[in-house]
Amino acid sequence: MSKSNLLIELYSNLSTTGAVTFSSKSLVNKMISHSDLSHAQLIIEMGGGDGSITQGIIEQMNPNARLLVFEINAPFCEAMKKQFPQKNVEIINDSAGNLDKYLNGEKVDYIFSSLPFSLISKEATDEILRKSNLALSQSGAFIQICYSYLLKKLFKKYFKEVEASFTLKNLPPAFVMVCK
């Protein structure tokens, strides 16, 4: 799928994508800087979109690690399956709220998320964040892109520690919340 087709898909599904454009390389680098992917064994991405965050993760992750990418938009999934044919990358066309069904009891080192929690129902948000917290290893982290600092209060309901950083090098500028 071409970038222009991906943008059309993005804009026609604003209620589920929650973004006006895809994540910049600077934002992806900011997210990944809060992790040590070279030692991670199991990584989850929530909201794969155009694969920009996925690409950043793959570039940094251990070749023996596994990456599970959740995306509810079927055209995005199909494009990502072509873009990332690696055996250790699984593109999953399902809600991130079902992540536990794909883990077989394994613990996750990092969860990277670009889900638009301000647009997702309270019930679905609760399910995703509760299951994310349960899925993380003891030293794991949930790393979230968001456009409002006010979401820090939401994440504090589910995680003991929440740190926020900010980058202007994205349209719009964004926060990265690191939750442990």
Automatic annotation (TrEMBL):
The keyword RNA-binding applies. It holds the Pfam family RrnaAD. The keyword RNA-binding applies. One of its GO terms (molecular function) is RNA binding. SUPFAM superfamilies: S-adenosyl-L-methionine-dependent methyltransferases. Keywords: Methyltransferase, RNA-binding, S-adenosyl-L-methionine, Transferase. Gene3D superfamilies: Vaccinia Virus protein VP39. Signal peptide: none annotated. InterPro entries: KsgA/Erm, SAM-dependent_MTases_sf. It comes from the Bacteria. GO terms for biological process: methylation. This is Phospholipid N-methyltransferase. It comes from Algoriphagus hitonicola.
